[in-house]
Design goal:
The chain has 238 residues and is α/β, with parallel strands linked by helices. Helix content is 39%, strand content 20%. It is globular. The chain contains seven helices and seven strands.
Amino acid sequence: MALFKNMMRRPGPRATACWLAANYIRLVKATGCWRIEGSEIPEKLISENKPFLVAFWHGRLLMMSLAWPYAPPFKMVISHHPDGELITRTIGILGFDSIGGSSSRGGVGAARSMLRALKAGEYVGVTPDGPRGPRMQAAEGVVFAARHAGVPILPLSYTAKGNKTLSSWDRFLIPLPFCKGVMKWGKPIEIRTDADAQEIKSVTTALENELNQITRQLDSELGISPIEPAPRTAGSSS
């Protein structure tokens, strides 16, 4: 593992890894049987030129480019740590931009980055449990950004029958070629621009619950063992 990490610090191996990852995603898109539910939700907002945030769990990040065949640019919030740089370069090969930041608890930098992009009328994707978790628990930075930008949050998740689930903190799901996959958009989650701290907390909980509900529903439909959120510590709340 140490040898692998050292190799990934070198420009050549990093570029090769990103190229391979991007083309693996293309392969899974091309060979898999994919269904997208609820696409009328983002399409309506896009047709009205209304920006929004897209929220999805870190463990269901790999195939998110599949959900955006639309003309307006879509940016993803990616952290500045080394793994984040790999993701940034990979999605860049697929034609997507990124903005720096982190949605982990206390991720003020990410909130500011999202706010600038949203106020510029852009569409932004973020993992509310990234980059380090806890798994499938939403941080308030996403809702904070939506409140100040005056935009809704659209939950999004996917699953695939025929996958490899890693033992990483996020239980990262990798669909295999020729898989059967389904992706689902949830209804917009609104937050008032004058919402107080308690309302931000309440909406964060609603976002977390909706994302988990969609993910469990999709896993159940395809007969996949569900991935459960990380256990909450004594000091955590939602």
